[in-house]
Amino acid sequence: MRISGITIPDNKRLVYGLRIIYGVGRSRAAVILQDANVGLEKKAKELTAEEENAIRREIEKYRIEGDLKRDISSNIKRLKDIKAYRGVRHLRGLPVRGQRTKTNSRTRRGNVRKTMGTGRRAAEKK
């Protein structure tokens, strides 16, 4: 089964299979299946053509995949252009949502871990 250019796995339950689509998470997948009158325990290979079309219609109501990614990137670009605090944090590659940066945030900053302290452990081994 393909939805908006993404292949949904046949052997997984649809609640989990729909989550492959960018913009469809745990709760939205359940809502889509309920609105399409499809059982939550069904797998993609067990669907009829009518059920597939109902799921496609429900998913088309939401902004997903490329459109969603485009919207998110344009929102971030707008924040950068108006020099908002969050936009500046995006520009500098720092945490945006108020996390501490003295420790942590290594993945966001891209720092290589450096050993701190006296280094006594290394001296004891000799």
From TrEMBL:
GO biological process: translation
GO molecular function, one term: rRNA binding
Coiled coil start-end: 30-57
Region (Disordered): 94-126
InterPro entries in UniProt: Rbsml_uS13_C, Ribosomal_uS13, Ribosomal_uS13-like_H2TH, Ribosomal_uS13_bac-type, Ribosomal_uS13_CS
Keywords: Coiled coil, Ribonucleoprotein, Ribosomal protein, RNA-binding, rRNA-binding, tRNA-binding
Residue ranges, compositional bias (Basic residues): 99-112
GO cellular component: cytosol; small ribosomal subunit
Family: Belongs to the universal ribosomal protein uS13 family.
Protein purpose: Located at the top of the head of the 30S subunit, it contacts several helices of the 16S rRNA. In the 70S ribosome it contacts the 23S rRNA (bridge B1a) and protein L5 of the 50S subunit (bridge B1b), connecting the 2 subunits; these bridges are implicated in subunit movement. Contacts the tRNAs in the A and P-sites.
Quaternary structure (record): Part of the 30S ribosomal subunit. Forms a loose heterodimer with protein S19. Forms two bridges to the 50S subunit in the 70S ribosome.
Protein name: Small ribosomal subunit protein uS13
Taxonomic lineage: Bacteria, Candidatus Tayloriibacteriota
Gene that produces this protein: rpsM
